Amino acid sequence: MKLKIISAVLSLMTVAALFSGCGSENSEISESSKSEISESSAVEDITENTAKPVLSLSKTEVSAGETAEITLSVNGADGLWSMCGLHITYPKELVCEMDNEEERTIKYKLGDASENSMGAVGMLWADGLPDELEKNHLGCFFFTEMFSGNQGYDGEIAKFYLKVPDNAESGTVYPISYYFQETDLFTDSMQNEEMQEYAFSNAVDGCITVK
């Protein structure tokens, strides 16, 4: 079992590295990696998954110079999801707290929805950001995790940490959102496309407001 978990985490790290800075040229590799993860975590399930997951990012208030805690949550998929891989965007005025600068891994804390997680990785997308993000002065990080079968719960998936500028004016609102790509995912062990499409179509943005 321990070897399986180590293997799964290594696969996750490979996928995270690909997804956090991927372009269309990486799509084939990324799809292959997704399949490997699915095969390693899938469980026989003859019942139809009717999950309608709603992803949401929290809205919070902090003072200038403080670090805001942003929570990624899900509802409508209790015990029905197996893996996620999401790009989350934020204004570049904010600074994403890092766990390891050299490896570009971000600081995060798993929540109750991730109680049975086999492994998770968060990475900053530092180079080669798409023109759309550069034009809108947005930074981006990627978070991915997986379970053995559909053991992802409803609730808080993970918390992330973004520092507000020292000179931020009271009332300033920093939007926190998603940047969905072809390689992103939120699905079950059978890679249910309808479930994923629902999750991405109904995702709720968050924000940080300066007190």
Concise description?
By secondary structure, this protein is of the alpha+beta class. It has helices spanning 2-20, 27-41, 131-135, 193-201, and strands spanning 54-57, 59-62, 67-75, 83-91, 95-96, 98-100, 105-106, 108-110, 119-124, 138-146, 155-163, 173-178, 185-187, 206-210. The model is unreliable at 1-10, 22-30 and 40-46 (pLDDT under 50).
3D structure, described in words:
With 211 residues, the protein is of the alpha+beta class. 23% of the residues lie in helices and 35% in strands. It contains four helices and 14 strands. It has helices at 2-20, 27-41, 131-135, 193-201, and strands spanning 54-57, 59-62, 67-75, 83-91, 95-96, 98-100, 105-106, 108-110, 119-124, 138-146, 155-163, 173-178, 185-187, 206-210. Strands 2, 4, 9, 10, 12, 13 and 14 form a seven-stranded mixed beta sheet that branches. Strands 1, 3, 5, 8 and 11 form a five-stranded antiparallel beta sheet that branches. The protein has a two-stranded antiparallel sheet with strand order 6-7. Helix 1 (2-20) runs antiparallel to helix 2 (27-41). It starts with a helix and ends with a strand. 39% of the residues are buried. Mean pLDDT is 85; it is low at 1-10, 22-30 and 40-46.
